[in-house]
Prior knowledge:
Chain A is mostly helical.
Amino acid sequence: MANDDKHSKQTSSWQSAVADWSADKETFNMPWGKLMMWIFLLSDTFIFSIFLTSYMKVRMTTTVEWPSSSEVFALTIAGNHIPLVLIAIMTFILITSSGTMAMAVNFAYKGDKSKTFYLMIITAVLGASFVGMQAFEWTKLIVDEGIRPWGNPMGAAQFGSIFFMITGFHGLHVSCGVIYLAIVANKVRKGDYDKKGFHIVEITGLYWHFVDLVWVFIFAFFYLW
Amino acid sequence: MSQSSDQQQHPISLYLKIWGLLFVLSTLSYLVDYYQLEGILRWTLILVFMFLKAGLIIGIFMHVSWEKYSVKLLLFIPPIAVLIFIALMAIEADYTYLNRLTFSK
């Protein structure tokens, strides 16, 4: 019986897809801005995938030893040597900002403009602090550790170029996201969307969650692997 | 355009639970490095925690779980092509590496 249920559910999923594509109507039942954001994020997925794939390729092909990321990104705090501590804090901050963003979307659809505004601003501030920590991380690596795009004292020369390219491109996305969030939050507060509806908050949220999503992959492949 | 089908309304408690879960998963993946686990165990744990986190973000925070099947196909078919590309590049990288070992000094 369970199998039958599963089968019938699958069939109806496919049937719904076929109906969406073949019937005389819009295929995707969502505001066009949301669909455009999804298509943009899909294209961004390709770019980040290409970056991570090229990282895989240079790391797999180099005959020189790859620097230990656990050691490169360690910090000494109050005399204790802690590996990856800054990256851990940055990860928690980005996850928290994703949580506040999800709640902002919820309050936007409930029509609570002031809560939406404050949650979006909190999200933007957390994003800005993430970029600030990244600036600190880069400064430490460039000034103290001598890492350059063309080489570093710890091992494979490709480490620097890949590191600055991937985290730099992600940092750019976070920075743009902070500006985007601030603009949309301000327009929500001013009441620009009172008539149009609050889909824009969900669309902004999609972008912000995507930035968090990309960090999940960078965290796993670049910092932990 | 039907307003009801595309407005994502879920209880706040759901988001708080996912938030907590993402925190726990991040802590676990951090601990993998902290305890310096090595070998197959390390890679497996890193990948499992990564995919769980990615799934929670895409499914709940980005509301894909509640989207229609057409939207899911739009979002998941292209990344499958990317995965095939990654596999091809991994094979290519092995080949390059062996050549470098053999021919460069």
